[in-house]
Amino acid sequence: MRSPTELAQVFREKQLKLTPQRQLLFGLLHDNDSHPTAESLFEIASKQMPGISLRTIYQTLGELADMGELQLVDLGNGAMRFDPNMGEHQHFVCGSCGAIHDVDITSAPKLRAGSAEGFAVEEIGVVFHGRCDRCNRPNHGEQVSQHSKRSPGIQAKKIRQVKQASSN
Amino acid sequence: MRSPTELAQVFREKQLKLTPQRQLLFGLLHDNDSHPTAESLFEIASKQMPGISLRTIYQTLGELADMGELQLVDLGNGAMRFDPNMGEHQHFVCGSCGAIHDVDITSAPKLRAGSAEGFAVEEIGVVFHGRCDRCNRPNHGEQVSQHSKRSPGIQAKKIRQVKQASSN
DNA sequence: CTCTAATTTGCAAGTCATGCTAACTAACAA
DNA sequence: TTGTTAGTTAGCATGACTTGCAAATTAGAG
C-alpha cells in the first residue's frame, strides 16, 4: 500500500474526499504487517477517533482493496484480514498462537502451474501452517492470542483453502 | 471417505448409532466429488428424507470430519465445502462458473517447504484459481451456478487463503 | 418390551459483512 | 466567509452461515 501522502493524492485525483476517517486509516494501515481484521482496526481507530463507525472501516477497507492498495486475506479464522503488503508473498499461520506472518515467496519453494488438466490457472493461493519459532521454544506461551471467535467446533478442525483475487 | 458399509462398521464400534439420517448422508457423500455445502446436501437429503434437519447435516458432517472421513474445505465463497476425498489433493476454483475441481497434486508442481524463516511448516494449503476448460471455450456459459450468497462486495474481490488441518 | 444414552430437531444466538438512508461534510466556487 | 453539492459516515437492519441448547425421539442393548 502506498503512503498516506500518496494515497491522499490518489484520492484527490479520483474526486474522493480526504476525510479524517480515511486519513486515520491510511496511517493505521501504512506499513502494517499485523494482518488486522476490520474489528481490530476499529478498536485502534476508535481510540484516536471515538465514534468512528465500524461500517466506515469496512467501507474504506473495501475501497482500498478495490483500488489495489491492499489485499483482503481470508485465513478461514473467521474474519477477513487486511494486508497492505501488495508484494507477492504468502502467509504462515501459527496453529499454536494464531500469529500470522508474511512469508517471502522467494524463501519458500516457488510455485507455478500452467494449465493443469485443462484449467487455465491464473492465481495460486498458498498458506503455510505450522508453529512459529516462538511457539517452538521449550517454554513457549501456548496462548492463542487472537481469540478466535466464530465457531469453535467446525472451525477448529476445518481445512482452509486459499484463493487469490482475479484481476477484476 | 470410506464406504457406507465400512462407516457403519466404524460407527458401531464407536458406540455411535446408525440412524437413517447418518446412513443417508453416508450414501450421499460416498464418492461425491461435487464439494457440496451443508446446504446443498440438505436439499438433496430432504428429497429422500423430508423433515431431516439442517442441524443434523452439520452435526454429522462435523463428526465425519472429526473422524477423519472427510475434509472441510473453505474456499472463502461463503459456505464450507465437504470433501470425502481424503487423498492428498488440491482444488481448482473456476472464477467464471464457480465450479470446484479436484486437482491431483502430482499434476501440479509439488509443493514443499521446510522451516522457512524459522517456522516449522506442517501443512501447506493451496488453491488454484482461473477458468475451467468449459468456461474457456468461445461460447462458454458464463453463469456462476453456485449462486454465491454471502457478501457480494468484499467477497467478490477478496484474496482467499488456505489452510490444512493439523493432525488433530 | 424396557430402558437409557445417543441423536435429531427446531429455534435462538453469535459472528462477520453488507444494504440502506438520513445526517454530515470536504471540496470548490462565488 | 458562505453556499452548494456530491461524496461520506454512522446506525441500524438484514443476510448468510454455524453453532448452542434443551426437549422430544429413537437406536441398540438387555
Summarize the main sheet of chain A: 3 strands, mixed
- Just give the CATH class of the largest domain in chain A: Alpha Beta
Query: The CATH topology of the largest domain in chain A is what?
Result: Dna Ligase, domain 1
Strand percentage of chain A, roughly? 15-25%
> Structural class of the secondary structure composition of chain A?
alpha+beta
- Whole-angstrom Rg of chain A: 18 Å
The biggest chain-chain interface is: A-B, 62 and 62 residues
Family (chains A, B): Belongs to the Fur family.
GO molecular function (chains A, B): DNA-binding transcription factor activity; transcription cis-regulatory region binding; zinc ion binding
Pfam family, one (chains A, B): FUR
Keywords (chains A, B): DNA-binding, Repressor, Transcription, Transcription regulation, Zinc
Q: What would you say this structure looks like, in words?
A:
Two copies of one chain form a homodimer. Chain A is an alpha+beta fold. Chain A folds into two domains: 70 residues, Winged helix-like DNA-binding domain superfamily/Winged helix DNA-binding domain (Arc Repressor Mutant, subunit A, Orthogonal Bundle), CATH 1.10.10; 71 residues, Dna Ligase, domain 1, CATH 3.30.1490. In chain A, the strands form two sheets. Chain A has a three-stranded mixed beta sheet. In chain A, β3 and β4 form a beta hairpin. In chain A, α3 crosses α4. The C terminus of chain A is likely disordered. Chains A and B meet through α4, β1, β3, β4 and β5 of A and α4, β1, β3, β4 and β5 of B. β5 of chain A pairs antiparallel with β5 of chain B, so a sheet runs across the interface. Chain A binds a DNA duplex (30 and 30 nucleotides) through α2, α4 and α6.
